[in-house]
Amino acid sequence: MTPRPTGPARLVVLVSGSGTNLQALLDACADPAYGAQVVAVGADRGGIEGLARAERLGIPTFVHRVRDFESRDAWDQALTGSVAAHEPDIVVSAGFMKLVGAGFLERFAGRMVNTHPALSPSFPGMHGPADALAYGVKVTGCTLFVVDDGVDTGPIVAQTVVPVEDDDTVEALHERIKVAERAMLVDSVGRMAREGFVVDGRRVRIG
Ligand code: GAR
């Protein structure tokens, strides 16, 4: 992606829950110097705080629930169409609890990033903090990566290390990770938007 010659980079953010990572991006985008704006927020379920955060700012939202479609492919097509309609420079999956399909990936190849609450390649999937705690690691963290067709396997943009405390619960650990995750996401997406980025094999180079 090369930076837009005029105006901020267009972000479409996908969420499935509370949307605190989305909120961090929204807060950052309030400063024109950040170089990006959230032009739409999409979700795979309704009635979530992530959508409400966008609605309060008058940002367009869309919802596609898998169960409302006759196939996963049909859902993927609808999601692809809704995202494409907002002409994003970068698609940000921020707590979006669905894997997108081949059609979506083809359309947004190399332009979709996802934040994951573990240090890849350890603990991929839906339960990063719980899996790290169960394994007994002393440090874990978060990873921002360019989405490919695997589960949390794409080329890595950024990682932040977070300590695991002896008396941690899954919730306490996940909250500590999310503090680091929001800072990592805001910093990396801003630099990607302002400076552009290149994916070269497994290497991601910003600027
Ligand atoms: C974040 O920790 C994100 O990494 C995780 O869900 C949380 C969403 O928080 N995503 C995954 O686990 C995807 N595999 P938020 O809704 O408050 O931003």
What gross morphology would you assign? Answer: globular
CATH hierarchy, class: Alpha Beta
Class derived from helix and strand content: alpha/beta
Q: H/E element string?
A: EHEHEHEHEHEEHEE
Number of individual domains? 1
How far apart lie the N and C ends? 10 Å
Mean pLDDT value: 97
- Give me the count of strands: 9
CATH homologous superfamily designation: Formyl transferase, N-terminal domain
* Bound small-molecule species: glycinamide ribonucleotide
Share of residues in helices: 25-40%
Give the biggest sheet.
Answer: 7 strands, mixed
Q: DSSP strand (E) fraction?
A: 15-25%
> How large is the radius of gyration?
16 Å
Low-confidence stretches: none
- In the CATH hierarchy, what is the architecture at level 2? 3-Layer(aba) Sandwich
Strand arrangement across the biggest beta sheet:
3-2-1-4-5-6-7
Reported by name, the CATH topology is: Rossmann fold
How does this structure look, described?
By secondary structure, this protein is an alpha/beta fold. The protein has a single domain (9-206), classed as Formyl transferase, N-terminal domain (Rossmann fold, 3-Layer(aba) Sandwich), CATH 3.40.50. The chain has helices spanning 20-29, 49-56, 72-85, 102-107, 128-135, 170-195, and strands spanning 9-15, 36-43, 61-63, 90-93, 112-116, 139-146, 156-163, 197-200, 203-206. The strands form 2 sheets. It has a 7-stranded mixed beta sheet, sandwiched between helices. A hairpin with a 2-residue loop joins β8 (197-200) and β9. It is globular and about 45 Å long. The N and C termini lie close together (10 Å). The model has no long low-confidence stretch (mean pLDDT 97). The structure holds glycinamide ribonucleotide. The site of glycinamide ribonucleotide has 17 residues, from α1, β5 and α6.
